[in-house]
Amino acid sequence: MKKLVFILVLFVFLVNCSFTQEDPINYEFGSTNYPGIQQGEMFLYVISTTTVIVPVPVTDKSGYTLFFFESRNDVSALSKNFNEIRFKSKRLGETAYTISGKVLSDHRPVFISLNEYYSK
Q1: Count of other CB atoms within 10 angstroms of residue 107
Q2: Which residue of 35, 48, 91, 109 is most buried, as measured by CB atoms within 10 A?
Q3: Long-range contacts for 29-37 (Cβ within 8 Å, ≥24 apart)?
Q4: What distance separates the 2 farthest-apart alpha carbons in the chain?
Q5: Which residues fall within 8 angstroms of residue 89, CB to CB, at 6 or more apart?
Q6: Are 44 and 29 in contact (CB under 8 A)?
Q7: Residues 67 and 56 sit within 8 Å (Cβ to Cβ)
Q8: Over 90: is that where the pLDDT of 9 sits?
């Protein structure tokens, strides 16, 4: 009898746990459960609040111009980086995270509409 009660309690516990588990948070591109996301959005990527990437032209002796990119500190980096995103539905989040889930300072997440992303 004790075995039957134990098995029944164990079964109820396992069934209850399987229904109450939440999806693990996905911190990668395309996530629909990134912290701060709203219904119908997906996570695009994080942008810097302090630096911008700028092209630096370098012309060699034969006259060819190559572009190298470097990051520069900029007080208006957040707005510049945000304005570079071509999606109309873009929305700036509050707290950015690394892929492993740690808070990423000096960055903000960007979310876009799932409809807009999949309609392109």
Answers
A1: 21
A2: 109
A3: 32/114, 34/93, 34/97, 34/109, 34/111, 35/93, 35/95, 35/97, 36/93, 36/94, 36/95, 36/109, 36/111, 37/93, 37/111
A4: 91
A5: 41, 112, 113, 115, 116
A6: yes
A7: yes
A8: no
| DSSP 8-state class, residue 43 | E
Q: What is the pLDDT of residues 51-83, one digit of tens each?
A: 998 888 888 888 888 888 888 898 899 999 999
Cα–Cα distance between 109 and 111 in angstroms, integer?
A: 7
Predicted structure pTM score: 0.71
Strands in the chain per DSSP E: 41-48, 51-59, 65-73, 91-92, 96-97, 103-104, 107-113
Q: Where are the domains of the chain?
A: 24-119
